[in-house]
Design brief:
The chain has ten helices and eight strands. By secondary structure, it is α/β, with parallel strands linked by helices. The chain folds into two domains: 112 residues, 3-Layer(aba) Sandwich (Rossmann fold), CATH 3.40.50; 147 residues, Rossmann fold (3-Layer(aba) Sandwich), CATH 3.40.50. Helix 2 runs parallel beside helix 3 and helix 6 crosses helix 10. The protein is elongated, with a radius of gyration of 23 Å.
């Protein structure tokens, strides 16, 4: 199949993260496909839905291939409005696809939008996420180590191996209090864990990375420095991995993995917030 570019809309009444994740996972199965992505969050009323439909129709008029829409709109009225852009666009709505099947399975009708009790900001779940983000920001890069007892996970790894973005993703997406600690040359002078980490071995998760990739990342930040040299990168990676093996710290190579994949590995390894049957 020849490479082509398709416009893809991700639509939601909230952040659209779910629509993006679903859509990208499905589109990734078509390797030759190139996409122009448009995310449209907070479509929470008919006026916004109608403006969106008009925008999708205008896109369809000027492009050779019809747009694709991934939607997670729970309100049936808004879903009906969005479907008005068919057949000019292909609309794939999670609720329309799965609700009828679930209704048949449960032998029950789905609740109307007015019957559903939504969690608003200020709910227990929302507050937990805010607290997790605040904790994670305060415990980034080993700045504070006095409150590791409150952490659910402590990511360890050499500088620029992906600790900060993974920590923030865990906090924002899952409400997990994630601290992170940078392993430095001083930590590698002995074969022991840093003293601040020793009491919390069961919370540790290591990140490693290909030395060549690490060299490129560091060189973009501090070119021609010892810190960025390929020799230094190799030494640090070898020492970090030796430490992981010595203390049986679970770890993952972040070189070719997305933040979502890394976070999922952390959650599974430390059994955070989910029940794992495998």
């Amino acid at each position: 199949m020849a490479a082509m570019t398709r416009t893809v809309f991700y639509v939601s009444n909230r952040t659209a993260i779910t629509a993006e994740t679903l859509g990208r996972s499905l589109l990734a199965q078509f390797g030759e496909l190139r996409v122009h992505e448009i995310t449209v969050p907070y479509v929470d009323g008919p006026d916004k839905a109608r403006r969106l439909v008009e925008g999708i129709r205008r896109t369809a008029e000027v492009e050779p291939q019809r747009p694709i829409v991934f939607s997670t709109l729970p309100d049936p009225a808004l879903r009906a409005l969005l479907l008005e852009c068919q057949p000019a666009a292909l609309v794939l709505d999670v609720f329309d696809h799965f609700l009828p099947t679930l209704a048949a399975e449960f032998r029950s009708r789905p609740l109307e939008s007015g019957e559903i009790s939504h969690r608003e900001p200020g709910s227990e779940d929302y507050d937990a996420r805010i607290e997790a983000v605040n904790y994670t920001l305060s415990h980034d890069d080993g700045v504070l180590t006095d409150h590791y007892s409150e952490a659910e996970v402590i990511l360890v790894g050499v500088s620029r191996s992906g600790k900060t973005p993974t920590s923030l993703y865990l906090a924002i997406q899952y409400g997990i209090r994630a601290a992170n600690y940078p392993l430095t040359e001083e930590d590698f002078e002995t074969t022991r864990l840093p003293a601040s980490l020793e009491p919390f071995r069961d919370k540790l998760f290591g990140l490693t990375i290909d030395p060549v990739r690490l060299h490129k990342i560091r060189a973009a930040r501090r070119p021609d420095s010892r810190y960025a040299s390929i020799e230094q990168c190799r030494r640090e990676i070898r020492a970090a991995q030796a430490l992981y093996h010595r203390y049986r710290i679970p770890f993952i190579d972040t070189t070719n993995r997305s933040i979502e994949e890394i976070a999922s590995a952390v959650i599974k390894a430390l059994r955070l917030g989910r029940v794992h049957l495998l």
